[in-house]
Task: inverse folding
């Protein structure tokens, strides 16, 4: 037996006799009640009876049994049947004082005609007859339908998501000797470091912010050819500018030919420690925001005016934070915030700050409203193809792909080049810049999740992809792609020539295997991996990797920053130096 179904107010369909008015079976009033009380009770009962009839009629129209009964055997007058005269299916509805016919349509006297206006087919002494509802056809599952029609199932995920990329073994024998004596060996060292010559002696120092839960200012380590020693910098200037664990960039920010140190930390906005010589620095903000929190910053001349500019990335989702503030303001009846009291525009995860002739900085982040928050960012303001400046960053949003931006000097805006190009279904972690086949390139690590409708099974895993600019077009090359039950994040990645052939190679602190893996770029555009037996081993979490000539012998070396986490088996963390012995 089939029933006519309509959308009715839930209160009507679910009505079971409970009401703010008394039910018809309410106890009779006591005989000693006054005449007025009796009249009032009678009026309430009459109203309740009308409500009951209204609800019963509405339930009937919806194909539901009366409130007092749920037995289908007593409901045969509601059945759908085939009219012997016309051959059409009809449903009959018992006549009721609350139902009437107006202009050929069956209506209910106490319900909005827009809710119920059913075309009447005919009527007799006891029933109205309306057309039976047309049932939607039941479609077979996609697989069954496809098989029946000789079609292949719909492919919901790009088959390349199941690709596995494993570089071939290289014949190059590179010896990497560890020379880490004097460097820290424990702690939460996160997230980024720089290796640069701060004192002009032609040998670079390692420069970092303090480790998490550590105290101090800039952490500087220098190598004398045998061991490392700590340099205690002299810090002057604004004492309200605090160093916190995060990121470092080294560049000449004031045009005096001395490399300055730009730092940003978790809970501490970016500022510059201007190099006064002899490891003396003066810290100043010069218009950079104090409100920002981050772990990565990078410097370069974006607009070509001869002054250094900055790009910095938040280590928390400012977009999500803004939404929470807006929802709170709406709930409290206040105007939604758009900026803080100091003019800091809320809701932007990645920002650009341009240097001025006065030595101050001004934020100009047009186009970065769609950028991500993350823990790494690298800027190339003077790419070798003389094309637009660009930066690459991590992206902690699951499925976020806004990791690559070009800067247009004519419009003064940034443009997202990662849309439709960057790896999907995951988040992006470490970044490094270099060249691929002589073209400007970004090397980015990622961790993949899965996608709904992945008909061939999960494709979780991790890897490294290269995004390179060929003319005006950005393209992707997968260096490494691993399928795994759970992907492993490896943030530390560095790019530079390790075997002296003029091509940029890659050093990856691969946490999934516990090694600093080395991949040599070949002239054909492929990559070959150094024998694992020759790769340095490491434990815990890689944070940052740099490829640079530390000892001045003309060969690039590898510097690794790593940390432990609370659940780690060891407390190993800090800095390690692997000298390229050829």
Result:
């Amino acid at each position: 037996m089939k029933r006519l179904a309509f959308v009715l107010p839930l209160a009507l369909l679910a009505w079971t006799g409970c009401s703010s008015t008394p039910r018809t079976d309410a106890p009779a009033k006591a005989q000693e009640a006054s005449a007025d009380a009796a009249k009032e009770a009678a009026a309430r009962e009459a109203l309740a009876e009308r409500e009951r009839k209204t609800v019963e009629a509405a339930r009937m129209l919806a194909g539901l049994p009366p409130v007092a009964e749920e037995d289908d055997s007593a409901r045969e007058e509601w059945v759908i049947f085939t009219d012997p005269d016309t051959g059409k299916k009809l449903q009959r509805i018992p006549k009721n004082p609350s139902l009437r016919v107006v202009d050929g349509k069956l209506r209910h006297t106490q319900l909005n005609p827009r809710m119920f206006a059913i075309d009447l087919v005919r009527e007799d002494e006891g029933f109205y007859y309306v057309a039976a509802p047309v049932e939607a056809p039941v479609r077979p599952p996609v697989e069954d339908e496809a098989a029946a029609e000789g079609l292949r199932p719909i492919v919901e995920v790009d088959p390349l998501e199941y690709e596995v990329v494993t570089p071939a073994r290289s014949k190059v024998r590179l010896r990497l000797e560890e020379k880490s004596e004097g460097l820290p060996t424990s702690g939460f060292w996160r997230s980024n470091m720089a290796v640069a010559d701060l004192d002009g002696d032609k040998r670079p120092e390692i420069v970092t912010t303090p480790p998490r839960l550590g105290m101090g200012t800039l952490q500087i380590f220098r190598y004398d050819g045998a061991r490392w020693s700590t340099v205690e910098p002299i810090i002057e200037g604004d004492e309200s500018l605090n160093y916190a664990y995060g990121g470092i960039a080294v560049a000449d920010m004031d045009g005096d030919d001395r490399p300055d140190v730009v730092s940003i930390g978790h809970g501490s906005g970016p500022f510059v420690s201007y190099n006064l010589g002899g490891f003396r620095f003066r810290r100043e903000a010069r218009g950079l925001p104090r409100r920002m929190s981050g772990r990565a910053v990078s410097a370069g001349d974006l607009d070509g005016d001869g002054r250094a500019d900055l790009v910095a990335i938040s280590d928390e989702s400012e977009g999500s934070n803004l939404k929470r503030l807006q929802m709170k303001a709406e709930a409290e009846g206040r105007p939604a915030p758009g900026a803080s009291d100091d003019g800091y525009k809320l809701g932007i995860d990645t920002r650009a700050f341009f240097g001025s002739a006065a030595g101050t900085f001004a934020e100009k982040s047009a186009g970065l409203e769609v950028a991500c928050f993350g823990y790494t960012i690298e800027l190339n303001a003077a790419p070798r193809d003389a094309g637009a400046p660009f930066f690459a960053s991590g992206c902690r949003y699951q499925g976020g792909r806004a990791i690559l931006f070009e800067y247009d000097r004519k419009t003064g805006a940034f443009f997202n080049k990662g849309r439709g190009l960057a790896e999907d279904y995951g988040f992006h972690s470490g970044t490094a810049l270099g060249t691929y086949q002589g073209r400007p390139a970004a090397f980015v690590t990622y961790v993949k999740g899965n996608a709904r409708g992945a008909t061939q099974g999960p494709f979780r895993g991790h890897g490294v992809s290269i995004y390179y600019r060929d003319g005006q077009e950005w393209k992707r090359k997968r260096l490494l792609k691993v399928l795994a039950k759970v992907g492993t994040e490896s943030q530390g990645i560095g790019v530079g020539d390790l075997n002296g052939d003029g091509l940029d190679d890659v050093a990856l602190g691969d946490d999934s295997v516990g090694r600093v893996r080395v991949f040599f770029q070949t002239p054909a555009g492929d990559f070959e991996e150094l024998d694992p037996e020759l790769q340095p081993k490491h434990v815990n979490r890689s944070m940052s990797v740099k490829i640079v000539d530390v000892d001045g012998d003309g060969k690039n070396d590898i510097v690794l920053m790593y940390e432990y986490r609370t659940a780690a088996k060891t407390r190993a963390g800090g800095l390690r130096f692997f000298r390229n012995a050829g």
User: Anything to note?
Assistant: The chain has a mean pLDDT of 86. The longest strand covers residues 426-436. The radius of gyration is 36 Å. The first helix runs from residue 10 to 13.
